[in-house]
Write a structure and sequence with these properties.
Blueprint (H helix, E strand, L loop, with lengths): L1 H21 L11 H24 L1 H19 L9 H23 L1
Helix pairs in contact: 1-2, 1-3, 2-3, 2-4, 3-4
Length: 110
């Protein structure tokens, strides 16, 4: 039980961080490069989620969990005033997780 908790607690905590940021009505920085900055942040936060989920579930199931959580996060945003849920963001989130998985696998080969 202790081992399971040590594997799942970081995943749950990071999901809570993502949920909290998704609950903010407007995260716009007002910078001219705000849009690409937010998309890179999307990819990075879900790369971290994949890394944490990977510890608990393995590479493949960690990726499945991460993409499903990305979809649920975008759905959650449809209920937040000023936010929109976008499937393109799910793709960006999944790409971030896939990029992290690829990096880990390439690193193992090299």
């Amino acid at each position: 039980m202790k081992r399971l908790l040590s594997l799942l607690a970081p995943v749950i905590a990071w999901c809570a961080v993502i949920f909290a940021f998704s609950s903010v009505p407007d995260l716009s920085s007002g910078l001219s490069y705000d849009y690409p900055l937010r998309k890179v942040a999307h990819a990075a936060e879900f790369a971290v989620l994949w890394a944490l989920a990977r510890r608990a579930l393995g590479d493949g199931w960690g990726l499945v969990f991460t993409v499903l959580y990305a979809a649920s996060d975008e759905y959650h945003q449809t209920f937040v005033p000023g936010r929109l849920g976008a499937w393109t963001d799910v793709a960006i989130d999944g790409a971030g997780a896939l990029l992290a998985l690829t990096f880990v696998r390439l690193r193992a080969i090299l």
